[in-house]
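Exercise 4. Each item below gives a protein and its sequence. For each, produce the structure-token representation.

Item: ATP-binding cassette domain-containing protein (Salinicoccus siamensis).
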Amino acid sequence: MKLNIPKKYILLYTLMSMMGVAAFVLFGHNLSLVLEEIVIEKKTPAVKGMTLAGLFFIIYAMLLMIYRVTSAKIANSRIEALTTELIEKIGDGTKKQSEAMLNAVFVHMEKYRPFEKVFIPTVIQTAVKLAVIIIASFFVHKNAAFIMLFTAPFVPLYYILVGLRTKDESEAQATQFDELGTLFLNLIRGKDTVRYTQSQQTVIDRLRSFNSGYVKETMNILKYAFQSTLMLEFITILGIGLIALEVGLQIIIFDGITFYAAFFTLLLAPEFYNALKVLGIEFHNGKLAQGHLDRIEVLIDQEEPTEEYRIFNAQTSAVRLEGVSMGYGELSLLENVNLSLPKTGLTAITGPSGIGKSTFMRMLLGLHRPTEGALYLHTDDIGYISDEVYFSDTSIYDYVSDGRYSEEDVVSILNRLDLMGSLNNLEQGIHTEIVNHNIPLSGGEVVRLKMARALIRKPEIIIMDEPTEFLDATTEEMVLSYLDEIKHESAIIAVVHRRKLLNIADIHYTFADRNIVRGGAL
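Answer:
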């Protein structure tokens, strides 16, 4: 199994493990000598022997502790670096994979952590321990060493076969977990649609199906874990029993072994087989962790183009598309579209739900790369108004001003959008804190607040996704009046679902048949 760790750490772990196992062997050597003096020679044990036995045991214990602390520190630093690399992949372009990305950061990363923190140090330490004990056993009692050599390969052979299957099951489980999380969050987002279309039973059936798949994969992994543990115990008991039987026969019948060699062998044998058992368990856990690592690496290895695909040199148009195609994977939303939008005026965009209007807006914002063609914009001074804006923990004033405008400017734009009346009723007015995305305003007032943040800058291009949604009739008239005024200075591109906004539009385009055509029904 590939350890996925630099050679310098493998060397460090190996040297530390050799020192620890050597201390254990020397402890066993001196303890055996002390007990031989007591049991066979009927002597009072020498102070030197007892001191050395105690000293090497303390050294062994200290080296184990240092090894655990060092390996944990290295593992944490490597996990932190891997997490940073993963987080750097998070961007606006990862929206469609947001749930998988969150799972990778918060679930798969933690499931992989034991691989770095426990599996790698344990495998190296155990491999060194097995080698040193076998070598020491040849000097102490060759028959026991041969028994160890004969029985030891059964554990790794069994776990190679089981571990490969476990890794497949782990990958399937991780995939099911991602799909279940994605489905659940998508259903939360679309709960209103589910209710309006009376699709509750369909949703329940899909959730039950995904949950059943996840439970099935989990139970398969538990089955392999149980089988592995049972097999380990059997091999461990068998190996220790064979060595104990051989040593007993040598002492009682053949008289071919000293007490020192017998005790030392029986001290080393359980340590040898326990190490094998630990190696087997960690091999199983390591394959589980690698399944989660594969999910992480899929996201890390994705090639995301970073260069700006928008070209800011349009002279006569706010936006110009030349042979633009757009979509998601095999799903095509636009094909070979040519379009030019003026530098001023309100351009209304209509079309059925799911046809690509919002994706088109994201493309203009630099958040969705077209698959083909060229996109030209007059300027990068773009304001965006969307219902997906997140309110961080700040004040209403700081949210609108973004640290660039005075209180007077903020109050002015809020007055234009008829918000100051409501804000003045708050104890702290425009300095009211926004905590945990909680704003003490109605839905329509929140919409206008988002508009205020964008419009205070008076950007040259304004992109809006249904700006008058949630507004009452009076407020809608006021907002439409304001938009009708500023459209003479800016290019407003708005996704439209309501007739009143379409009435003040200068140009109307409709999405239809993977194209954008002039006019059309609302």
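Check: The first helix runs from residue 7 to 39.
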